[in-house]
Structures are given as C-alpha cells and as structure tokens.
Amino acid sequence: MPVTITVGLDGTGHSVAAADWAAHEAARRGAALRLVHAWAWRAGDTSYVGDRDAEERMVRAVLGDVESRVTAAHPSLDVSTEVVVGDPVPTLVDEAARAGMLVLGSRGYGTLAGYLIGSVSLHVLRRTTRPVVMVRETHPDAPAPRPSGDVVVGVQDAETAGGPVLDFAFGAAAERGVPLRAVYAWEVPPVLMWSPGSMWVAEQQGGLEPVHRQILADALKPWREKYPRVEVVEQVGTGPASEVLLSRTEGAQLLVVGRRTHEPGVRRLGSVTHAALHHAPCAVAVVPHA
C-alpha cells in the first residue's frame, strides 16, 4: 500500500494551504492523500452554525471544496476524504498514527505565543509520535515560496537519538533533489568563560569551534552514507540555538526540527522547536525522537 499523507482541515485558509502543500508532497512521493475534518457537535456553542444538520453539511462542503481544489491541481492523485466525529486532538493524533505524515495549518505570526499556532495543533504536536508538518498560509503580498529552496535541519541531538530527525531531513532533501543545510549551534560553557587556564588549553587545540564542527560531522556521517546523492552544507554557529537556526532559514522550502518524546513530566515542544514553529518563513516538520 502507498504511504498516506493526512491533512487536518478546519475550514480556515491555513488548513487549505496545508492541503495544497500536502497534495504537492503526495504527488511527488507517489503517496495517497487523506483529507480529514474532525468534527464534534456542540449544541449551544455560538461559534458554530447552531443546527447539527446544517453544520454537518457545511463541514462536508469544506471537504468537498478542498478535494476539488487538490484534484484539479493533481488529477492523478489518490484522494480520500472523511468527516470524523470526535474531538479534534485525539482524532488527529489517531490519524497521525496511521499516516506517514500529518499536515496541519499554522496561523504563523502573532502576539500571544499560546495562540500563534492554535491550541489543537499544539496539543497534537505534543502528543503524536509521528512527523507533523505545519504549513502557514502565504500572505497575498508575500513573495511566492521557492520550490528550489533547500531543506534545513536543526541538529540539536548529535547522538544516535536524533537519528529520526536527520533521516527525515535527508529523505526530504533527496526527494526534492535539493541540498540539505545542517545547522548546529553551540555556546561557550560558563566554566570556560571564568577559567583562563581552560581557555588556554582549548586555544592550544585550535579553539572550541573545530570540536563542534567535528561533532556535527560525526552526527551526519551515517546519513551521508545512506543518502550519498544529497549535497550537504554543514553550518556551525555560536549563540542561542533558536537564533542560529532561524538565521539560516532564508530561502528554505522546509525546516526540520525534533521533539523529544522520552522526557518525563509535561509534554513540551522545546524552545528551539517552539521558536521555529512561530517564526520560520517556511513549512516546519516536527519529528519526534527518543
């Protein structure tokens, strides 16, 4: 069976942009596209139509309109649609578990951090164990996305645990036939800032940056061997990881970041992933890893 890319629709322009992105991705991969609208009837909620049958018709019309839109752009694409009765978060988490990728719309820039992406998307991102791509609706006055732009990956976890993130990023670059830009950020440890002797030793060994360049090179080596045709650009920067990473995303068509799944306590995205979702100028893939 072909891999399925699933899109969560909610009737907004952001989710339509997500469907457009996912349809193009499915056509490129030879994957099936599944359009899902998670719908829970809430009698008395003034944000809804107010009549169950009328609201259901509206939801199905949204699905039908988007289906017509993506099939017009990709006539040979295998597209299916479904209205799933249930709360959006658990529904989309279940859909993600059965798909190769879940694609959602992102509200993009805003003023309140908790509402930039949307509460449903944030909860889904925190709970799913499958890759989720967040796609922002393009402003009419904004320049068109560059399909030839490269794929950027933030290498936060240089150990084996970060493997799923790198595998996804290398695979995305290979499918697109574009370079992969691997970005690794480091900061001077406070102990070295206050220890002249330690700094002297580091300088005698060529400084700290070559050490971190080697860390990045070692992390990429297995994936370079797996994807020998992918051109890789290694970039090491000093400073906060989110700032270093975002400064390298200009002109990119996709940014890939990770999310740890093994940390105890409250599920969270991490500061770098959170910053990427709110400020990256391109689609952002969040890949869970151990």
From TrEMBL:
State one Pfam family annotation: Usp
Coiled-coil stretches are none
InterPro entries this protein is in? Rossmann-like_a/b/a_fold, Universal_stress_UspA, UspA
UniProt-listed Gene3D superfamilies? HUPs (3.40.50.620)
Domain named UspA is located at: 4-136, 151-288
The record's family statement is:
Belongs to the universal stress protein A family.
Record-given protein name: Universal stress protein
**Organism for this UniProt entry:** Streptomyces salyersiae
